[in-house]
Amino acid sequence: WLYRNKYKSMRKAAGTLQRYVRGFLARRRTQGIRRTKAAIKIQAAYRGYLQRQKFLRLKALTIQLQAHIRAFRARQVFKGMKEYKAATIIQKNARAWVARLKYKRD
């Protein structure tokens, strides 16, 4: 009877000890999982930040390039208009000169 009670108390103590150890190991495991998940989230956020910075830099360069192209085209159009106006003035003067010659002959 005495050994039976001693056996029961040792078995109960072993169960209690196992329960505490298993709880400790489970908490340690979940803490590791939480840290891993947190690290993954931080890494993902940082990679997203880098990609946004890269995109914004590329967007700014694209806008700058478009502005240069539009300015170049505008200068070409203006140059064409200037040449057209010059040609019109030359034509006007030539027609006036021809008209004066014709008037003098008559």
Structural summary, described in words:
The protein is mainly alpha-helical and 106 residues long. The chain has one helix and no strands. The longest helix has 104 residues, at 2-105. The chain is rod-shaped and about 155 Å long. The N and C termini lie far apart (155 Å).
The ordered H/E elements are: H
Shape: rod-shaped
- Give the DSSP E fraction (strand runs of 2 or more residues): under 5%
Distance between the termini: 155 Å
Total count of helical runs of at least 4 residues: 1
Regions with pLDDT < 50 over 5+ consecutive residues? none
Number of strands: 0
Helix content: over 70%
Mean residue pLDDT = 95
Sheet of most strands: none
Structural class category = mainly alpha
Radius of gyration: 45 Å
What layout of secondary structure does this protein have?
Layout: H1 2-105
Provide key terms for this protein:
rod-shaped, mainly alpha
Summarize, please.
This protein has one helix and no strands. It is mainly α. It starts with a helix and ends with a helix.
